[in-house]
Design a protein that fits this description.
This protein has 2 domains: 2-15 and 121-161; 20-114, Immunoglobulin-like. Helix content is 34%, strand content 36%. It has helices at 2-16, 122-161; strands spanning 23-27, 31-38, 41-48, 58-64, 67-70, 72-73, 79-82, 90-100, 105-114. Helix 1 (2-16) packs antiparallel against helix 2. 14% of the residues are buried.
């Protein structure tokens, strides 16, 4: 029974943790782009791999679900993209197209996994599965306990009859 209690406690602890924001990371030989999604908005941090310094002088566009979206630069040096396509659930290939002042351009690709529209990701199904296993475990333990009691009672009757 202690195992079942530990499994139940673990299920509650897993469901109490806040869900991380969807994230995409992509890199090229020189650049690293990290995008964090919140609703229909993506905050993009673009930096150089050599010294991790932010890239502030680039034109950045993001190809998401086959549509190119321009990103705007913020005062802190990050970029922002706002589109309703970020609310669509499922996996999506994201391509960051970076054009810098010297005429050089790079393409960085990554995959973004967005949770279901109801806010319940795959973790919701794993919680349900944990409860299913706990229930099955409890039923099996109960069955074995009843079976052993019946065998003991039958043995006691058999010994009393001899």
């Amino acid at each position: 029974m202690l195992v079942a209690a530990a499994a139940v406690t673990g299920a509650f602890a897993a469901s109490a943790e806040p869900e991380a924001a969807p994230r995409v990371a992509a890199r090229s030989a020189d650049l690293l782009a990290v995008g964090l999604v919140s609703g229909d908005r993506m905050s993009i941090h673009l930096s150089r791999l050599i010294d991790n310094s932010p890239v502030r002088d680039a034109a950045l566009s993001v190809v998401l679900r086959g549509v190119s979206h321009p990103a705007t630069i913020d005062a802190d040096g990050s970029y922002t993209l706002q589109t309703k396509d970020l609310r669509l659930p499922g996996a999506a290939v994201v391509e960051f197209q970076v054009a810098q002042g010297g005429g050089g351009g790079e393409s960085l690709k990554g995959t973004l996994q967005i949770a279901n529209a109801t806010g319940q990701s795959e973790a919701g199904n794993s919680s349900r599965q944990i409860w299913w296993w706990v229930l099955n475990f409890a039923v099996c333990i109960g069955f074995l306990w009843l079976y052993s009691r019946r065998r003991k009672a039958a043995r006691a009757r058999h010994d009393a009859g001899s």
